[in-house]
Write a structure and sequence with these properties.
about 475 residues; mainly alpha; Glycosyltransferase; two-stranded antiparallel sheet; 13 helices; globular
């Protein structure tokens, strides 16, 4: 349960950011009402999260939603277990509930004279968007992400299990697996890379590699964890190994038949692009990332993979796949799952230096999602925010529309940092999930790149996708 910051003071432990980090870590406002939005119910992590404009203040256990034949009447995100019980029929569509008040801590814009460095290593605004644009010009005072990032390091310390490279994914919920976990270890490595705290000692790095390789099944070559499809887990663990300049210990035998280009194309064609574009992208994008990073793909295979994606991108929305993306006003509320799926194929394209076929259409879609508020962005610790930020920034950069995209990104950055600053790391289930926490920090890294000089951190955040594919 979250305490209302307007009535109860929040205390946080100090973090010793000067301590060395190897396998484990050493840890040491003003209130303003949020504008009212239509009352809703969203399902997050198996709980009903309800409220007129709050998605995290109240929760109660519920039964799993019944699957229906309506398109995306129940969205199942195995990445963060977000489910919507009603179809995305319009802005903030879900089940009506009594209105509630929701106060969030506003991010303090602090003028920073200098940022300590401690690391290991235009176009105009669309008039239709003007009413929604809060900050059309660069900030004179940067947003300060340092308090949240310091709390992230303390959370990592809490998840360390003692041995070098051993991390839990969860620590608070006794019903969760609180032992070594494929996503706990992978995302601890990902977070350390992003924060500039990556282990440098050769013996420590070898221990991390051994810890990750232990999650691979020798016979199939795949990595397994119950919350995700095995192809996603495999790609995610191999991507973490790549940060250590390492590869899996065994060949990926179970997906070896898909190394045939024709079989790969049939595999992509058979994915559920209409009913489950979000979760199916874990397979469609994960296949490329796993084989590529394991050194088991060929240039010819990869050329066929990206040629298929280029043919199948929807020219009207910039989303994958053409013919499966809902069209017109009636389909507006269904766009976000397709955007979240598109994100996975886009980062593969970015890594392979393959251009997106219709970047301008993708920019239009991203701006439409934000201005109509058809999905509750900046209301979860999750990957959804990263999906939207990355697609908008990279597509706008490709088609010369950064000047149009930055006001929306700037407005979102302030809202998201305010939300993250208002969470209690000692009780919040989203922050306690290292996989979801990694998604949130990745969004900040992409925002820092998209908005130069506008988000302060102790050292520049590094997005792992700029080194290799897959999140």
């Amino acid at each position: 349960m979250h305490n209302d910051a307007a009535t109860m003071p929040r205390t946080r432990a100090a973090v010793n950011t000067d301590a060395p980090i190897r396998g484990t870590l050493n840890a040491a406002t003003e209130m303003k009402p949020r504008p009212q939005r239509p009352p809703i119910i969203w399902i997050h992590g198996g709980r009903v999260v309800s409220g007129g404009n709050s998605l995290r203040k109240k929760s109660m256990p519920i039964a799993e939603p019944t699957k229906t034949t309506a398109p995306f009447s129940a969205i199942d995100r195995d990445r963060s277990q977000v489910r919507a019980t009603a179809a995305f029929a319009g802005p903030w569509s879900a089940v009506p509930t009594p209105a509630m008040t929701d106060n969030v801590t506003q991010n303090q814009n602090i003028m920073l004279a200098a940022y300590p460095k401690r690391c290991d290593s235009d176009a105009g605004i669309d008039p239709a968007l003007a009413p929604r644009v809060a900050t059309p010009h660069p900030r004179a005072v940067p947003l300060d992400a340092r308090p949240f990032l310091a709390r992230t390091e303390a959370i990592l310390q809490r998840h360390a299990l003692g041995a070098t490279g051993a991390f839990a994914r969860w620590t608070l919920d006794p019903a969760r697996d609180r032992g070594p976990n494929a996503y706990g270890v992978s995302d601890a490595a990902n977070l350390l890379w992003t924060l500039g705290r990556f282990p440098a000692d050769a013996r420590d790095r070898a221990a991390w590699v051994d810890s990750l390789q232990r999650f691979q099944a020798p016979a199939s070559g795949l990595f397994h964890e119950p919350t995700h499809h095995a192809i996603h887990t495999t790609a995610h663990c191999i991507a973490a190994l790549e940060l250590f300049d390492a590869r899996p210990a065994h060949r990926l035998a179970e997906v070896a038949p898909l190394r045939d280009a024709a079989a790969m194309e049939r595999f992509l064609d058979a994915l559920d692009w209409s009913g489950a574009p979000w979760t199916e992208s874990h397979r469609g994008a994960g296949l490329y990332a796993a084989l590529h990073l394991a050194g088991e793909s060929t240039p010819e295979w990869e050329a066929r993979y990206f040629a298929w994606l280029a043919r199948e991108c929807d020219p009207a929305t910039g989303l994958w796949r053409r013919g499966a993306v809902p069209a017109g006003a009636a389909g507006l509320g269904l766009l976000f799952p397709h955007l979240a799926g598109t994100f996975h194929y886009l980062f593969n394209c970015e890594h392979a230096k393959q251009s997106h076929p219709h970047p301008g259409a993708l920019v239009d879609t991203c701006l439409r999602i934000r201005t109509t508020r058809i999905y509750p962005l900046a209301r979860f610790v999750s990957f959804a925010e990263m999906d939207w930020v990355y697609c908008l920034h990279r597509a706008a950069r490709d088609c010369g529309r950064l000047g149009e995209a930055r006001p929306a990104l700037r407005d979102f950055a302030a809202e998201y940092l305010a939300y993250l600053d208002g969470l209690d790391p000692d009780t919040d289930a989203g922050l306690d999930d290292l996989h979801e926490l990694f998604g949130a920090v990745s969004a900040l890294a992409e925002l820092q790149s998209a908005l130069p000089g506008e988000i302060a951190s102790e050292c520049p955040l590094r997005l792992v996708l700029d080194r290799r594919p897959f999140l």
